[in-house]
Amino acid sequence: MSRRKRRKLKSEINVVPYIDVMLVLLIIFMVTAPLLTLSIDVDLPTSRAKALESKQDPIVVTVHGDGQLGLTLPDGKQQAVDAEVLRTQLAAIVAQDKNTRVVVAADSNVPYQRVIDAMDALKRARVEKVGLLTDSGGNAR
Predict the structure, then answer these.
(1) Chain centre distance of CA 85
(2) pLDDT tens-digit profile of 106-133?
(3) How many Cβ atoms from other residues are within 10 Å of residue 135's Cβ?
(4) Residues 70-115: pLDDT tens digits?
(5) With CB atoms counted within 10 Å of each terminal CB, which end of the chain scores lower, N or C?
């Protein structure tokens, strides 16, 4: 009688495919890790403000480095004015149309106090819709 030898079952796990997968993942993470460190976490403020529906161009108040103010009306003409003339002209425009938009623009090297003085003149003229143009660094422009 011939007896067949029974093979024993192996209870081992073949780990070679797992090692291959781990090496591929290691390479993927090594490539993507430097890209992730370049980002900056920014906690942006939220707003419920709606987009402006006005098709009218805004009035632009420009603050120059020497303290001089410029006024650009929607027709495109720019004129140099002082704070009192600016206040009286804008008060007359706002008296006609309460929805007039005014934008304050200044270079990043203009002292912040001069920008605040221009915005104070707008407040005294009772302008309600005021915006501030800034450059990409968040500085007044």
Answers:
(1) 33
(2) 877 888 888 888 888 888 888 877 777 6
(3) 11
(4) 888 887 788 888 888 888 888 888 888 887 888 888 877 888 888 8
(5) N
How far is Cα 117 from Cα 98, in angstroms, rounded to an integer?
22
Please state, in angstroms and rounded to a whole number, the distance separating the CA atoms of residues 39 and 55: 37
Q: How many residues does the chain have?
A: 141
Nearest to residue 94, comparing CAs of 65, 59, 135, 63? 59
Residue 67 phi, psi (nearest 5): 95, -5
pTM over 0.85: no
Tell which phi-psi region holds residue 121, choosing left (phi > 0), alpha (psi between -120 and 50) or beta.
alpha
Q: End-to-end CA distance of the chain: give it in Å, rounded.
A: 101
* CA 97 to chain centroid: 29
**Ordered strands of the 129-132 beta sheet:** 78-81, 69-72, 59-63, 101-106, 129-132
